Amino acid sequence: MSDHLRTALNLAAHGVPPLPLRAGKVPFGNCRACKGNACGGRPNMKNAGPCECASVCHGWAAATTDPRVLTSPTWASAWREAAAVAYHPGGAGLTVVDLDDAAAIAWARETLPTTRTVPTTRGEHWIYRGAMQSANAVRPGVDIKSSMQYARWLGPGIGATAPLPDPVRALIVKAPSPIPRAITVPALAGGGECRHRTPAYLERGICMAEQRITEARSAVHTTVYRTFLAVLSAHGRCGCLTDTHITRLFAAAQAKGESARHCTDAWTNARTALGM
After folding, report:
1. Which of 122, 205, 260, 265 reaches 20 to 30 Å from 2, CA-CA?
2. Is 111 within 8 Å of 75 (Cβ atoms)?
3. What's the Cα-to-Cα distance from 53 to each of 29, 68, 108, rounded to whole Å?
4. Model pTM above 0.85
5. How much of the chain, in percent, has pLDDT values that exceed 90?
6. For the CA atoms of 237, 239, 243, 247, what is the dihedral angle to 10 degrees?
7. Cβ burial, residue 202 (10 Å; 0-12/13-18/19+)
8. Which residues, in sequence order, are CB contacts of 170 under 8 Å at separation 6+?
9. Has residue 158 got a pLDDT over 60?
């Protein structure tokens, strides 16, 4: 049994789901059946369907506490080639604040409550009890590794593991990006009245768009884009959309988990598709 597999089994026994890393501290690539996520992905991956693959596939989602999987023949070659062991913090109910340099460590010592600390090559991992959304570059030299992310196992560290504090959760809350400016186009030929300026007509269209986004149960990215496309197609060429209308659409999308950047990108792409 390799040292990496022995470490992985020890982690699994303590409820921490491990996975092997190859050279470069990256997960092993998917097998042929899962290449390009053709299989639909793991059940616990966002917007992905079931996958019964027993190989070391799908990055962080391969992490498991099942010793039968960890010691299976399909994982054996991965452990033989592994350069390191990683784990899924969110799967263990943990959050890792990855501090990449001395400046980031100094900031953490001034800002965050003391917790279990693990030295890294260039900085430290501060580990808290509680899972949250992962995010990179939340501030200079600081990444958050928890749900849907992996962290390299570098030992148990020192100190007691403190509860996840609000200042760490607040690191991923960003101010919304500016709302796109209302669309303006030349007046209709012949001075005709724009039917979209009828309050009830426009309000019904915006309400229907908000409802479509809110009721999305999967493929949220696609739903948001197609909804924006439909709104712009119906109401975007006469100048009737205002910042208030667009803000409502962005708010509905962000309530479904879309970032402000994704909203802006979807809006811009929809305008481009319509030649606006």
Report:
1. 122
2. no
3. 13, 14, 40
4. no
5. 42
6. -30
7. buried
8. none
9. yes
Query: Using one digit for the tens of pLDDT, what is the confidence trace for 31-66?
Result: 888 887 777 776 555 444 567 788 898 888 899 999
Contact 154, 125 (CB under 8 A): yes
Cα gap 41→61, rounded to integer Å: 9
Q: Which two tokens stand for residue 8?
A: 């992985």
Per-position DSSP letters for 97-161, written without gaps between them? EEE-SHHHHHHHHHHS---EEEE-SSSEEEEEES--B-EEEEETTEEEE-BT--EE-----BS--
List the structure tokens of 172.
Answer: 């991923």
Best-predicted range by mean pLDDT among 23-32, 81-90, 130-139? 81-90
Say if CB 240 and CB 196 are below 8 A apart: yes
For helices 73-81 and 3-13, give the axis angle rounded to 10 degrees.
120
Helix (H) or strand (E) holding 70: helix 67-70
SS3 assignment, position 20:
strand
Amino acid identity at 137: A
CA distances (Å), origin 18, targets 11, 62, 86, 128, 134 = 7, 8, 6, 18, 17
* Spatial contact of 146 and 169, defined as CB atoms under 8 Å apart: no
| Dist. CA 214–CA 252, nearest whole Å | 6
Q: Mapping DSSP to helix (H, G, I), strand (E, B) and coil, where does residue 213 land?
A: helix
